[in-house]
Model the fold of this input.
Amino acid sequence: MQRLIRLCAAATPVLAVCEPAHVQGTAAQEPVPRSALRLVHVQVFFRHGARTPVNRPPGQIEEVSWHEEAGQHAIEDAAKLRILQGGGPPGKGFKALQPPPQNAMLPGGCSLGTLTSVGKMNARDLGAVLRERYVATGFVGATYSPTDVYVRSTDFHRTIMSALNVVSGMFGDTAADAQVVVYPRGHETLGLSWTRCPALKQMYAAAIKTMAERQAGDPTMQRLALRLGVLPHELEVLALFDIIAARKAHEKEIPSHIEPEDIHVISKLAVDLLRHSMTLTDVSLSLVAGPVFAVLKAELDARIAGTSRHRLSLYSVHDTTLVPMLLGLDVFDNKWPGFSAALSFELYVAPETSKHYVRVLYNNEVVVLPGVDVEYCALEDFYAIIGRFILPDWDAACQTDSFSSPPAEPTVTLK
Done:
């Protein structure tokens, strides 16, 4: 049977609304033993697998050949997918299934931002980890069921194919029935949307300007710019970081212009830029993390209320989705999320009291939230943490001119 992708064009995902809360006001929580709890629901937000760069090499850095088999497999995989949109043909608003433009093609036949065979293996490996945690323990059945497992992806071919490979890693051959829900980019709430939220574009442009001034005065970046034949302020640090990360993931040669000590500086500047762009003003983090936290909260509420039967919800997203979530939870370690990095939220209930608790895991390791300081966080405390970033009217906030820098097209889009 062919895999299904459900393209949701008619409806826009509803944002849950919660009044801002302050975690400091919550009472100290006593640790709850695992034996007193029952797992009832899990949500996993994961970055897609390894891909080709999304940016061209700057300056004198030479292109490398990206002739990964996945460059061809991507086309074959797309051909195998049966697309459903309300029973009719797919709409024109979906970008993931459209052929890449000619100017996006790389030497070797792949295009910019293409999921590779390495990336598919990353996703299957993540699926195997999730299988061990949730299938082997009996939380979900060994056979894929859309009733139990909800899968959603952003409108990118690399995220859709990563989602299918994660499901395949979990459920084997039965994943051939997998359904992936996709919303058009103009209605997306799981990633950055310049068109839907102009304030995000302003926010990013202001951060780019500030960081360009900073890196222009950095001795390492000045030396690197000289070796690459560009001016320091023209050196796009995210493009450099993206190229290095993609080549390292595929064991390709790092450009000779970039010395080992340069990589540390580039990585730090890239993380600083992303963090700065998302914390520029009081509302910045709410613009990027709020919609994702709203999706998370809405699904938790639905599961508790009994209006959702999904035991496991999988979201195939981007690094620019995970970083604001980690920042909002105050657990970001200043390290760029790797390919197939995963942030999980487990919902538990205490049968004796009917109280609910949330446990957070990042890359399969338990994360204790600051201010809570226990492994199993009371649901009301967890809602207080994420509720601070869920705006009553996100769309209105997105139209606000809150930045001193004029709107500008982002020079780099890293996803």
User: Anything to note?
Assistant: The beta strands are 4-7, 38-47, 82-84, 149-153, 179-182, 312-317, 342-350, 355-362, 365-367, 377-378. Residues 284-305 form the longest helix (22 residues).
